[in-house]
Amino acid sequence: MFKINENYQKLPGSYLFSTIAKKVSAFTQANPDKDIIRLGIGDVTQPLAPAVIEAMHKAVDEMGNAETFHGYAPDLGYEFLRNAIAENDYKSRGCEIAPDEIFVSDGAKSDSANIQEIFSQDNRIAVCDPVYPVYVDSNVMSGRTGVYDAKTETWSDVIYMPCTMENGFVPEFPKETPDMIYLCLPNNPTGTTITKAQLQEWVDYANRSGAVIIYDGAYEAYISEKDVAHSIYECEGARTCAIELKSFSKNAGFTGVRLGYTVVPKELKCGDVSLHGMWARRHGTKFNGAPYIVQRAGEAVYSPEGKAQLKEQVAYYMKNASVIKAGLKDAGYTAFGGVNAPYIWLKTPDKMTSWEFFDYLLEKANVVGTPGSGFGPSGEGYFRLTAFGSYENTLAAIERVKKL
Amino acid sequence: MFKINENYQKLPGSYLFSTIAKKVSAFTQANPDKDIIRLGIGDVTQPLAPAVIEAMHKAVDEMGNAETFHGYAPDLGYEFLRNAIAENDYKSRGCEIAPDEIFVSDGAKSDSANIQEIFSQDNRIAVCDPVYPVYVDSNVMSGRTGVYDAKTETWSDVIYMPCTMENGFVPEFPKETPDMIYLCLPNNPTGTTITKAQLQEWVDYANRSGAVIIYDGAYEAYISEKDVAHSIYECEGARTCAIELKSFSKNAGFTGVRLGYTVVPKELKCGDVSLHGMWARRHGTKFNGAPYIVQRAGEAVYSPEGKAQLKEQVAYYMKNASVIKAGLKDAGYTAFGGVNAPYIWLKTPDKMTSWEFFDYLLEKANVVGTPGSGFGPSGEGYFRLTAFGSYENTLAAIERVKKL
To answer: pLDDT for A189-219, tens place per residue?
Structure first.
């Protein structure tokens, strides 16, 4: 008689954003006349840039012609894309990353969930708290997190690094030594980040303690301050301790296009075993490449036209971020983020819990946000708003919040 | 100090098709003047059908417009696609599969590798031998296969079901009781299949013994004989014991487009736990949907124009299959398959091993095929040729083989 992976039974509730979708759907059914504005899930709203659209049309035409048709993609991704990434995201910033250290994928969500597979089940993971739920959930599914305590909403074998107002949202080295450290910087959900000097300390810590850093740089395009690193490989020694995950979802609006990549430097080893080789094996066995059309779209992101158009798109969303932050301040809220990231992280008023504030905002202002506690226990009492709406909706939402 | 997943170290050699690619690349470098014909990896060569191209252009345009832009896709896939699948692949054949039992993915390779995750590590798997390498390799990676014996090229905890000339390539119920049974029908690599009555026996066996069948129906579009099931759900009782994986790679040439789906019926349970719910949770946590453009392409496969165009495409490849099989027969080879599947499985001549014949064919005829032993120990002494080349190349390849 077959048995199931019992670790799945340990997962409390459903995936955060599915829960929110269900709550909003129930509210909409009960109140069909209400005009809901969604600043909850981090989904973009602006259309793809013209340079990307043009590249995709061209690639579609190629797929319709026997001479230019493309079947299975190369395991790591097409060279044209890996070269563009190596040149623009690394070489131009003085980081030594070779094209064959870049693994093109269908998005950073898959990569951030799958990367734990190449590590031992005994490894202890450390996460910032609050954090993107996928890091912990994927480790729960593979049995790496121990026992869940429903009262504290924590796992016995996970090392939590609280990031709160009190420490300026900067994670501190944990008392217990972790084996795998997940860092998402600029951070989802808090919208805050750390300086390059602070990141260098984490790289040094990882090299000193033999930990590997899983560095999620999905929001890199939103960095506006000079002393913030755009890649962990800007730090000395990162090639021996860090894997970097990148996404095209937020810098180019590819949430519905699906493209990302993972960098595994060849120096990153456990004894004699290269993690690069392991990830290559995983990629070759469990994945069959991102679509040709999508990889051509990714290439267009790095063209001169693509760069200019996407710079504008990022600026558009960051204008929203300013509107949200200023509006919240006017309304008497304490809010963080929005300077190097498209997220605003606010303290809930009147000691409301995060979910109480979610319901309050949904019912009174018909605005959807994300409860901070959904990202971890230290997110309780906080709430996330995203800058990915349209400018008009963002303005309208903030006006409603101000009137509450 | 972090540790790695030691199971990866147990994997012998590299992924089959990577090894072939390297061998061919070395030969090409040494012999730049040779014109190589590839009938090895199961990659298609015909361009996408006009109906699919049209749907993709339309979807690209939608992505370039704020009013019609699509961000994150729904977890299970878009309804328009799931409805088309439920109607055309199931209802029309009298199978009861609801749209919400269909999970759209980026291809059957990912699904067939990932599906084992929701099962216990104690489960014993049974596979046909020879078999698509991903089933076993993905189970090796998660530590479900025991110890590898390099001499017999088998894993201690895998139950092998030999499919050879002697039993007409029909797997027999194994002596030991398996928990998970992988069946790929019509079969890759042998190109053979079993009747619906024989499949019903497997469904009954699984229900009787409490096993789950992972049914890979990637080659279903090539079925030409009437008594062969197009879906395992044509068999009575399959809803309580079977998961079905389907691909758009071979019926619609989507190897470079990436689209597939998995069916998990709601009745499929382990005690009280629904596997449907578990797979939904996995999908929601580790995957972020197939691209909107690709899902629209998938929908076009089911349009009247798409169906007509793809029927022609399948006929084109099956004409190749006939050419290969007839040519091999003329040349004195014993060959199987090619009637309900796009693969021809031949017995190597003169007691050559599969890899010896691979080298022989590459060097003497400049034709690339796939060594049978790469698919499992019972594949030794066999060789796979695919019908996915162009008609002209297929003819030329067979002429070269005849002249050997």
So the answer is: 999 999 999 999 999 999 999 999 999 999 9
Who among A3, A73, A106 is closest to B256 (CB)?
A73
Cβ pair B288:A110 closer than 8 A? yes
**Phi and psi of B256, rounded to 5°?**
-100, 10
Residue A257, chain B, CB below 8 Å: the answer is: yes
In the sheet that holds A180-184, the strands lie side by side as A102-105, A260-263, A242-247, A212-216, A180-184, A125-129, A158-162
Of A3, A120, A134, the CB nearest to B285: A134
In angstroms, the CA B250 to CA A358 distance is 47
All domains of chain A in start order, with CATH: 7-47+307-403 (3.90.1150.10), 53-304 (3.40.640.10)
In chain A, the percentage of residues whose pLDDT exceeds 90 is 96
Burial class (CB in 10 A: 0-12, 13-18, 19+), A298: buried
Average pLDDT of the residues of chain B = 96
Residues of chain B in contact with residue A4, where contact means CB-CB under 8 angstroms, are 118-120, 270, 273, 275, 278
In order of B141, B161, B206, the CA distances from B175 in angstroms are 25, 10, 14
Indicate yes or no: pTM above 0.80: yes
Q: Which two tokens stand for residue B116?
A: 């084992």
A285 and B114 within 8 Å at the Cβ level: the answer is no
Cβ distance A69 to B47 under 8 Å? Answer: yes
The alpha carbon of residue B49 is apart from the nearest alpha carbon of chain A, in Å, by 7
Q: Looking at chain B from residue 170 to 229, which residues have their Cβ under 8 Å from any Cβ of chain A?
A: 179-180, 209-212
pLDDT tens per residue across span B71-105: 999 989 999 999 999 999 999 999 999 999 999 99
Q: What is the 3-state secondary structure (H, E, C) of chain A?
A: CCCECCHHHHCCCCCHHHHHHHHHHHHHHHCCCCCCEECCCCCCCCCCCHHHHHHHHHHHHHHCCCCCCCCCCCCCCCHHHHHHHHHHHHHHHCCCCCHHHEEEECCHHHHHHHHHHHECCCCCEEEEECCCHHHHHHHHHCCCCCCEECCCCEECCEEEEECCHHHCCCCCCCCCCCCEEEEECCCCCCCCCCCHHHHHHHHHHHHHHCCEEEEECCCHHHCCCCCCCCCHHHCCCHHHCEEEEEECCCCCCHHHCCCEEEECCCCCEECCEEHHHHHHHHHHHHCCCCCHHHHHHHHHHCCHHHHHHHHHHHHHHHHHHHHHHHHHHHCCCCEEECCCCCEEEEECHHHCCHHHHHHHHHHHHCEECEEHHHHCHHHCCEEEEECCCCHHHHHHHHHHHHHC
Query: Which residues of chain B have a CB within 8 Å of the CB of A117?
Result: 5, 141-142
Selection from B342, B302, B335 nearest residue B320 by Cα? B342
Q: Could B180 and A2 be called an inter-chain contact, meaning their C-beta atoms sit closer than 8 Å?
A: yes
Confidence tier at B156 by pLDDT (50, 70, 90): very high
> What is the Cβ-side half-sphere exposure of residue A258, based on CA atoms within 13 angstroms?
26
Looking at every residue in chain A, the average pLDDT score rounds to: 96
The C-alpha torsion from B332 through B336 and B338 to B340, rounded to 10°, is: 160
